[in-house]
Amino acid sequence: MEIMDTTLRDGEQTTGVSFNKAEKLAISQYLLGEMNVDRIEVASARVSEGEFEAVKAITEWAEENDFLDRVEVLGFVDGDISLKWIKDAGGNVINLLTKGSLKHVKNQLRKTPEEHVKDIKNVIDRAGEIGMVVNIYLEDWSNGIIQSPEYVYFMMDELKDTNIKRFMLPDTLGILNPAQTREFISQMVEKYPDLHFDFHAHNDYDLAVANVFAAVRNGVKGVHTTVNGLGERTGNAPLASVLGILNDHLQIPNNLNEAKLTKLSKLVETISGVRIPANKPLIGEYVFTQCSGVHADGDNKDNLYYNDLLPERFGRIRKYALGKTSGKANILKNLQELGITLTPEEMKKVTQRVIELGDKKESVSTEDLPYIISDVLRSTSIDNKIKVKNYYLSLAHGLRPVATLSLQIDNKTYQESSVGDGQYDAFMKALWKIYEKLEKQHPLLIDYSVAIPPGGKTNALVEAIITWDLNGKEFKTRGLDADQTEAAIKATVKMLNIIENFNNHNYTNEIL
Predict the structure, then answer these.
(1) Topology at the third CATH level for domain 2-272
(2) Selection from 239, 242, 206, 245 nearest residue 11 by Cα
(3) Alpha-carbon gap, residue 282 to 240, rounded angstroms
């Protein structure tokens, strides 16, 4: 089964998403070199000078690494204009956009089917003269096969003996359901058994992955995906979900490297600015997290709530959420991760406190547990050894923000100032100045998100959630305040104390 990923073309048609040259190159390198997708569609011809330079950078890298025939560019029925654009950019494959429905030919092109076919054959002939491979999109094929099947078959009969390598069947407007997909793909494959068909799904009815399943079951040889399901309107079939159904449900041989999936999805999330929903299958933050205490108990006894989607396949680990439904089994799993052992009575008290926090809609993480234990059991094992005594933040129009920080560590006070690109950035730079002078290890900030309740006013509480990386281990801290910067500072101080306390305990390596 061939996978053609179109994140860099169709995925870039997501509202608000635009990739620059360096970003397109980085994603291309990961898709081909690490994820091992069979083909990538990287751009549309004639869009801009920046797009031309991006394609050129990709094709130069691809040629050096023997990937050039796997790089494709969308082109148009415009004589040799698109062909020349692609060739000049170093490309060798054109995905020719043609009309797959009679309505599009008549109302958009204002041509007859015969005229359109003549124009297509002209482009195919010119492509052959310059040694370019041609794949063909039958745009709006799904509407075409429903409303004007005679036109679709006319097109196929006219083009089947030309120099077209792949016929690509798009559900351009995402109108199909799996029963229709099965019926129409079967018709195409049975009528033209020697041709290579790709299926290109859109997700308007949330059926893109189900339609891919039906298309593969009924004979297509290639499917199109995007990373994280990016794409026009509701997006395309997500690469992650397609990978899952190919490997587990259909057991269709493919070249995808599923161990690289999580890193690829995070890379595209960062570059695109489009957040991955927490419950997105295979790649979302929560998909390998058990919330129910019954599930954790079953996993403790015989992995009763595991399925074939083991997180380790995708470079992930299974987690157990803490909240009012978690129960002591979830807490036990988290304590095992930390290397902490409690007596049954202590466990009962800690469980009750976690439930109380969950009732108040407060978030509880693994990193919070030592503090909850310290509070509930009145122990001194967790101590806020690091405190912010004072800080001053300034913001003035036309000037860079400045922060002055006074930090207390083990009853000694240290002070530094710094400028930054924002108030929090200035605060962090002042903080790390202190740490560098003391030669203290500190983590990297790898993600920063802010949450405000829906309908929140200017005085609404802000929750800052910061993800840190220390020695390859990730953890999160949260801060809550009416001011966003204050919330972030609270999360940061919490992080400092987690590191300071855990560096003095045996369970350091299990958490950080």
Answers:
(1) TIM Barrel (3.20.20)
(2) 239
(3) 6
pLDDT in tens, 420-447: 999 999 999 999 999 999 999 899 999 9
Tokens 């999360």 sit at which residue?
A: 491
The answer to whether the beta carbons of residues 296 and 306 sit under 8 Å apart is: no
User: Helices 261-272 & 21-33, crossing angle to 10 degrees?
Assistant: 170
**CATH 3.20.20.70 residue spans of the chain:** 2-272
Which residue spans of the chain are classified as CATH 3.30.160.270? 386-511
Token reading at 376: 């509930």
> Which alpha helices (H) appear in 390-458, and where do they start and end?
423-438
Confidence (pLDDT) at 296: 42
Catalytically active residues are 9, 139
Task: List beta partners, residue 5.
Answer: 40, 225
Question: How many CB atoms sit inside 10 A of residue 65's CB?
Answer: 12
Which element (helix H / strand E) includes 362?
none
Decide: helix, strand or coil at residue 453: coil
pLDDT recorded at residue 435: 95
User: Which pairs from 453-462 meet CB under 8 Å and 24+ separation?
Assistant: 462/487
* Correct CATH for 386-511 of 3.40.50.300, 3.40.50.720, 1.10.287.1260, 3.30.160.270: 3.30.160.270
- Low-confidence stretches of the chain (pLDDT beneath 70): 290-306, 320-321, 323-329, 358, 360-363, 365, 367, 371, 374-375, 378-383, 453-461, 502-512
Are 477 and 468 in contact by the 8 Å Cβ rule? The answer is yes
What's the pTM value of the predicted model, to 2 decimals? 0.77
Find the helix packing angle between 293-302 and 327-338, rounded to 10°. Answer: 60
pLDDT tens, position by position, 47-81:
999 999 999 999 999 999 999 999 999 999 999 99
Question: Nearest to residue 128, comparing CAs of 81, 166, 157, 92?
Answer: 92
Question: Where are the strands (E) in 180-261, listed by range?
Answer: 197-200, 222-225
Q: What is the pLDDT of residue 512?
A: 32
CB-based contacts of 67, cutoff 8 Å, min separation 6: 32, 33, 61
